Amino acid sequence: MGGADTLIAAARTGDEAAWAELYRRHAGRLELWLRWLPASDAAVSAEDVAAQAWLTAAGKVHDFSGSDDDFAGWLFGIARKHALNDYRRGVRRRTSPAELDSGAQPVFGVPGDDLSPIEGQDTVRRLLGHLSPREAEVVVCLDVVGLDVAATAEALGLRTTAVRVAHHRALTRLRRLMADDAPGEPTPEPQG
User: Fold this and answer.
1) Fewer CB within 10 Å: C terminus or N terminus of the chain?
2) What's the CATH number where 52 sits?
3) pTM > 0.85: yes or no
4) Per its UniProt record, what Pfam families does this chain match (predicted)?
5) How many Cβ atoms are within 10 Å of 47's Cβ, its own excluded?
6) Dist CA 49 CA 68 (whole Å)
7) Which sign does the torsion angle of CA 95, 101, 104, 108 carry?
8) Domain tally, the chain
9) Closest listed residue to residue 57, CA positions, set 18, 88, 106, 94
10) 122, 74: one domain
């Protein structure tokens, strides 16, 4: 085992500092990525799924055979499986969020009328809605979260070539949509 794999080796022994460093490197982008995945149950947050993934990773780190650099793809793959299970469970239960109280706290933590961050997210979500689910996941992994191609392939259970092809097709489609989305023209509706 080389020097590049010292974090994983230390994590296998239960070293808290190694786990803290792995968490520092991956927790933020893992939660960001999970927020972009489809959710069917408002009671399950991205933080909940991330916590499940970290617990699973801690329990299975002895089965992990990759390097420190491979850890992100492995962790994201675990999180994706947990998210899919939660999604399926939510569809079976058919839960829905409660209505928001109009006199409650600011929506999404945005005070007053400054909704521009939310509108920006809505625009990105609308554009991603024009892509196939695979293409949208690839774009979010690579361009929103910042995973590399190998980690994206591991996380999504794809080959690296399939990731590159899906990314190319997605960006081509998004460029065309943005070019067609000129002022004064109606915005195209997302596909099925």
Assistant:
1) C
2) 1.10.1740.10
3) no
4) Sigma70_r2, Sigma70_r4_2
5) 13
6) 22
7) positive
8) 2
9) 18
10) no
